Every structure is written in structure tokens, then in C-alpha cells.
Amino acid sequence: MIKKTRQSAVADKDSFLMPSSSLLDNHFDEILETTEEILGLVAILKTLSPTDAKRDEYEGRLYVALTHLDHHVKPAMKEWDRVVDRMPED
Q1: CA 10 to mean position of chain CA atoms
Q2: Residue 17: CA atoms inside 13 Å, Cβ hemisphere, count?
Q3: pLDDT score of 14
């Protein structure tokens, strides 16, 4: 299993990039964790030969991780658009 190596940093309260909702914050954490998983799986797959018995397992895990990433990116983008739309024009 590939371990999470870091946690998302908490932005200052006055920072523009501070997540505006717990939903957005959760999606950011999931996106970070999943991209780390994907990087680890890709690194493993690059070292395996095409005939390695473990290749199917790692490719399956990569597919699951990519699907999980998609599950969090789309709603995060929608929430981000909602936040931007609520911002003042100036």
C-alpha cells in the first residue's frame, strides 16, 4: 500500500486560497491524497516488466485511483466556480 506522505497546509484566514467551505476543503484533501497514490502507482508500474504477474493488480489500483480523483475534481471545480461567482466584481 502506498502511504500518504503529507497533509494539506492550512492557509491564513486572510488568504485568497483558503477553502471557503468544508466541502471544498474535503475535496482538496482527497485530491492531494489521491494524486500521491497515483504518483506512487505510476512509479511502481514504470519499474515492472509488461509480463510481471503484479502488473494487473497495480493497473487496477491505478484505474480505481483515477476514478476516485475524477469523483473529487468535478465537484471541487463546481464548488470553486460557485465561490468565484459569489466574489465581488472589483
Answers
A1: 16
A2: 5
A3: 52
| Cα gap 58→63, rounded to integer Å | 9
Q: Domain ranges for the chain, please list them.
A: 22-85
The Cα–Cα gap between 15 and 19 comes to: 9
Count Cα neighbours of 38 within 13 Å in the Cβ-side half-sphere: 14
pLDDT 10s digits, 48-61: 999 999 999 999 99
- 2: pLDDT strictly greater than 80: no
In the chain, pLDDT over 70 holds for what percent of residues? Answer: 77
Which residue, among 66, 89, 73, has the nearest Cα to 24 in the 3D structure? 73
Q: What is the rounded distance in angstroms from the CA atom of residue 63 to the CA atom of residue 68? A: 9
**What DSSP character marks residue 67?**
H
